[in-house]
Amino acid sequence: MEAQATATVKEALAALYHHPDDSIRTAADRWLQEFQHTLDAWQVADSLLHDESSNLETLIFCSQTLRSKVQRDFEELPSGAFRSLQDSLYVLLKKFNKGPPKVRTQICIAIAALAVHVPVEDWGAGGIVNWLSDEMKAHPEFITGFLELLIVLPQETSSYKIAARPERRRQFESDLSASANVAISLLTACMGIDQLKEQVLEGFSSWLRFCHGISASELASHSLVHMALSSLNSDQFLEAAVNVTSELIHVTVSHGSGTTAEQMPLIQILVSHIMGLKEQLKDPSKDEEDVKAIARLYADMGESYVDLIAKAGSDDSIQIVNALLEVTSHLEFDIYSMTFNFWHRLKRNLIRRESYVSYGSEAAIEAERNRRLQIFRPKFETLVSLVSSRVEYPEDYHTFSEEDRRDFRHVRYAVSDVLLDATDVLGGDLTLTVLSTKLAQAYGSCNNEQNPKWQPVEAALFCIQAIAKSVSIEEREILPQVMALLPCLPHHEQLLQTVCSTIGSFSKWIDAAPAELSILPPLVDVLNKGMSTSEDTAAAASMAFKYICEDCRRKFSGSLDGLFQIYHIAISGVGGYKVSSEDSLHLVEALSVVITTLPPESARTALELICQPVINPLQELIQQGDQVLQQVPARQLTVHIDRLSSIFSNVKHPEVVAEAVYRYWPTLKSIFDHRAWDTRTMESVCRSCKFAVRTCGRAMAMTIGAMLEEIQTLYQQHKQSCFLYLSSEVIKIFGSDPSCAEYLTSLIQILFSHTVQLLRTIQDFTARPDIADDCYLLASRCIRYCPNLFVPTEMFQRLIDCAMAGITIQHREACKSILSFLSDVFDLPNSSDGGNYREFINTIVLQRGATLTRIMIAALTGALPSGRLEEVSYVLLSLSRAFGENMLNWARESINLIPPQALTDAERLRFLNIISDAASGSSLHTVTDRFGEISDVCRRNKTVQDLVQSALRPHDLTFTVVPQQLS
């Protein structure tokens, strides 16, 4: 059998690497991946690695296979197999001591994974590090392989590819910490071998986080540290030396490393050597990767010592900040952006009160804050000048690929964040002053007749608009000049786009500007120009128009005719505007918020005017007959309906909007009746109705009955999920209104009765996640707003049964809605008005508790992704608090189903203790963390996870008896 499997592996590898047919290669790759999960893979991989005739492709595949088997499938082996596996891996380590390197690395990782799995005593006295020490001394000819294993050991402690239990992983970390001195001694002994220097540095970097027992003063004088720091000036070993130095920096600030005074001997020597690299940053002959490594070191130093830098404010501190400014001045984004986190942290230290609490009195705190700000403000001014030039459009931007353009946008977003950090230190007005100097210089170059350049002006404006929210609305020195400049700038597309965005960003300032400045009319002209230049400028202009109307709405209330003219041109699509249908929604919203400022009678007239260009096209389609309405593309309807949604959402005159909804209901009803099969149209029209309900509230009473009747009828026929989310909004507004009880009772009964027919099994839930999501959002709304109409009904019980079938749906939002509904059910009796439902809920849950608990435990242990851990934990917490001892019994039954191969007796007991503690008041955070550890144990590899799930069988709701072989 083994010989046949070995031959098949060789054939598959040959096909994978050499067969000309893509389909054959794909099939071979699939077979090899499946083979790696089999028991045979252990023996075949081991055998081929020992086989002298195996080629490189075979060796690489088999070393990867053996490594992954040790990592994830170690529990497949019999209990006594450890020693033979250890012996085999040891022989292989020596065999591949001189290469191939890829194979040797995989063998080292496999040995490290084996060490994580087994107790320290299995390696002999002192564990694997002492074993390795003995082997290195006894067989120096294999030093290369032994040294790589020494490097890999600490790295693998954080690898979650290794399917080890959490307590075993913690114990392994503890064992390594206890062996750190031995490891450091081994590395020190290898220092004198020149060809091993890079490996020694790499090993030292790996082991530093386990060197808790070595003091800072010892490290400061340690030969390995001096070797690393001296290697910073070596091109050959720079990368490895930087890694060591970064780790040493982290050691000095790590939790439990001692006081700053205790770490100072090491800090001083590190800073001294790092600062000595400053000239290399500017050396044009230096390789870019080396410059990146040095820049990373400066960034690490700045971020780690930011509190010391800010607090001291000394010449030495300023020298470090100046060095970081040198890095920030580099032209490559990958290099200068490394400092951005330092500037953010320095900003936080300077402005947060927590940085000054040790100074006691408010006067002392204020004095110290002012002292620090006075020292560092000039540096942030320099920072603003540096980064503001990084956002200029390149001359060849028009040739950029979409990926390059995306990268350029990323640079701009990053620079915007740095500018906002700077404004927190400097204040918006001072930052604006710095940027206005840049704008003035750029405007001069823009007017250069021989070589006019718009890019610097655009860059300065981009930076100014980025800090707009931080600039005082009382600013009167610079912004009036900027606003006066905007209409005078050339209408280059990218520049005009930024000009429009700048106008929108300063909408609040424009509203507060003195009337005598007469700023608004020329800016509106600029926006008009933007809307007719290109789609991109139109998008920026329409967004800016929305902001201007929101914040300057009262200035527009006397000039509605001009606004309506702009609106009608944009909506009609004629007149030269290049506003897309999506961007036109900004103009709809803009006019809607202006209408909100009008008195009711004027608002009524204005609302009619804004709705007519939206309603008329819909009515024209309806008048062409049922067949046309049914066949027209959804887009021709939704473009108008979405505009109606924006109007209903933003005109805050409930009675006026309610009248409009009543007036237009026949139009909406026709669309409901003839397009109910069309998901896209129904989602659009339901969204419009939802916003109407939200805005009008109970003022919409004259339409709500007809709307609910329509929803009930159409949902029975077409099962569109949007009818459910529209109903959720209705329940929220009208749920507590006694006059609507009859309507709502009928609505709840009909919607839920038809939904539970659709969702009988987990397969049904998976096929209709939108229905599941909106159904249980509606159910939760019913519990919160009208429990009296919902909880005492048979439909409530059926929805709980239905939820149990769908808990393990993989769709994130649907799953969260179901879990939220269940926790709402369990929490209801303990709410202020929920006592009336306690007996009813108790009866339902007590009948289902054992099955429900089993499904929830299955969800926790692998049936749902680990990302749902908090939601699942909250349901278990709620169930535990509501049903105490019963819940503990249900949990015990379920946990006992899990076979001992997956959970030990101690782990079962720990699992039960978590549930017991949850019942007696543990916080959600604590419970989630503790459940997370049990969840990891049950998911530690696919075999265990499958074993747990086959025992709990979350999809089998009739399963109650544990099979004999698993008991």
TrEMBL record:
<dbReference type="InterPro" id="IPR051345">
    <property type="entry name" value="Importin_beta-like_NTR"/>
</dbReference>
<dbReference type="InterPro" id="IPR001494">
    <property type="entry name" value="Importin-beta_N"/>
</dbReference>
<dbReference type="InterPro" id="IPR057941">
    <property type="entry name" value="TPR_TNPO3_IPO13_2nd"/>
</dbReference>
<dbReference type="InterPro" id="IPR058537">
    <property type="entry name" value="TPR_TNPO3_IPO13_4th"/>
</dbReference>
<dbReference type="Pfam" id="PF24140">
    <property type="entry name" value="TPR_TNPO3_IPO13_3rd"/>
</dbReference>
<dbReference type="Pfam" id="PF03810">
    <property type="entry name" value="IBN_N"/>
</dbReference>
<feature type="domain" description="Exportin-1/Importin-beta-like">
    <location>
        <begin position="100"/>
        <end position="244"/>
    </location>
</feature>
<dbReference type="InterPro" id="IPR013598">
    <property type="entry name" value="Exportin-1/Importin-b-like"/>
</dbReference>
<dbReference type="InterPro" id="IPR011989">
    <property type="entry name" value="ARM-like"/>
</dbReference>
<feature type="domain" description="Importin N-terminal">
    <location>
        <begin position="28"/>
        <end position="79"/>
    </location>
</feature>
<comment type="similarity">
    <text>Belongs to the importin beta family.</text>
</comment>
<dbReference type="GO" id="GO:0005634">
    <property type="term" value="C:nucleus"/>
</dbReference>
<dbReference type="Pfam" id="PF08389">
    <property type="entry name" value="Xpo1"/>
</dbReference>
<dbReference type="InterPro" id="IPR057942">
    <property type="entry name" value="TPR_TNPO3_IPO13_3rd"/>
</dbReference>
<dbReference type="Pfam" id="PF24139">
    <property type="entry name" value="TPR_TNPO3_IPO13_4th"/>
</dbReference>
<dbReference type="Pfam" id="PF24138">
    <property type="entry name" value="TPR_TNPO3_IPO13_2nd"/>
</dbReference>
<keyword id="KW-0813">Transport</keyword>
<protein>
    <recommendedName>
        <fullName>Transportin MOS14</fullName>
    </recommendedName>
</protein>
<dbReference type="GO" id="GO:0006606">
    <property type="term" value="P:protein import into nucleus"/>
</dbReference>
<dbReference type="InterPro" id="IPR016024">
    <property type="entry name" value="ARM-type_fold"/>
</dbReference>
<keyword id="KW-0653">Protein transport</keyword>
<keyword id="KW-0539">Nucleus</keyword>
